[in-house]
């Protein structure tokens, strides 16, 4: 017997999505605000934690490792509830739900981003920094001009994945009263008793955001690769005046190597 595709005879009412489109739009704006602000703070804090993680000082390195281990082990929902309700009761601090959610997501994702930063920076050969310093650049300028552009290409893909994670985890801050997409959908469902239509709309919003972030990440990765290739192309113009070893090293960069500064050849 042919099974009916709609055994419950559910009557779809997609018009409810159009009716509550303004609610969903407000939720989308708040979702993006929470995600962007949290990601911006997490990127800055994560970079500092990464530097601490690579510090030669044992105490600093140990603190960074402890921070990363602890905050990566706590479920986001548990941390948000603990910070908003528990810490408030103990300390008496009254933090708005929006900023409480931002702080929680920042602290947690900074731990993940710090390891991404560390992996990207340590993937760059130490000879690159040494070669930059030998030209008279300071350590800070050597990092900005030589190390970071190469590490950035490595960092972009996993960082984009983490931003997608933040977008999805913003759905958790609704439990403390932040009116993001999921909470707005829940309120609309309680008023209309149309969970399928409204939760489907919320799901589509998250899918569109995720696909958009992936496209932007791919674009940034291509731009970073083109920027590095342009630098090596400019150096190649001067390669005939620098000797065959240098020209060979630069040519290898353009063919697929990651080095911006050619290393000295062994004689």
What does this structure look like?
Helix 2 (21-53) runs antiparallel to helix 8 (181-192) and helix 3 (58-73) packs across helix 5 (97-122). This protein has helices at 15-19, 21-53, 58-73, 76-91, 97-122, 126-134, 139-169, 181-192, 195-237, 239-242, 244-255. 78% of the residues lie in helices and 0% in strands. The protein is built from 11 helices and no strands. The longest helix has 43 residues, at 195-237. By secondary structure, it is an all-alpha fold. It has a single domain (19-255), classed as MetI-like (MetI-like fold). The protein starts with 14 loop residues before the first helix and ends in a 12-residue tail after the last helix.
Query: Which CATH C-level class is it?
Result: Mainly Alpha
The count of domains is: 1
Instruction: Indicate the CATH topology.
Output: MetI-like fold
The name of the CATH architecture is: Orthogonal Bundle
Q: Can you identify the CATH superfamily?
A: MetI-like
Distance, first to last CA: 82 Å
Order of helices and strands: HHHHHHHHHHH
Model regions low in confidence, pLDDT < 50 over at least 5 residues: 241-267
Could you say which structural class the secondary elements and strand pairing correspond to? mainly alpha
């Amino acid at each position: 017997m042919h099974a009916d595709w709609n055994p419950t005879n559910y009557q779809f009412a997609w018009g409810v999505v159009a009716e509550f489109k303004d609610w969903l739009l407000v939720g989308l704006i708040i979702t993006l605000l929470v995600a962007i602000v949290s990601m911006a703070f997490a990127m800055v804090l994560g970079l500092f934690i990464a530097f601490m993680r690579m510090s030669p000082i044992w105490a600093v390195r140990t603190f960074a490792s402890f921070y990363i281990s602890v905050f990566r082990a706590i479920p986001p929902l548990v941390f948000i509830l603990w910070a908003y309700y528990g810490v408030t009761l103990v300390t008496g601090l009254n933090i708005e739900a929006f900023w409480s959610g931002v702080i929680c997501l920042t602290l947690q994702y900074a731990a993940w981003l710090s390891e991404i930063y560390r992996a990207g920076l340590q993937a760059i050969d130490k000879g690159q920094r040494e070669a930059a310093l030998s030209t008279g650049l300071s350590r800070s300028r050597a990092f900005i001009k030589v190390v970071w552009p190469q590490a950035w290409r490595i960092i972009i893909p996993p960082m984009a994945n983490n931003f997608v994670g933040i977008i999805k985890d913003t759905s958790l801050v609704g439990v403390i009263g932040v009116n993001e997409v999921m909470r707005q959908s829940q309120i609309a469902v309680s008023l209309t008793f149309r969970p399928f239509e409204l939760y489907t709309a919320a799901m589509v919003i998250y899918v569109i955001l995720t696909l958009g972030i992936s496209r932007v990440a791919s674009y940034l990765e291509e731009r970073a690769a083109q920027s590095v290739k342009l630098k090596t192309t400019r150096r190649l113009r001067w390669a005939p005046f620098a000797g065959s070893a240098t020209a060979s090293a630069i040519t290898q960069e353009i063919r697929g190597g990651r080095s911006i500064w050619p290393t000295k050849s062994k004689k």
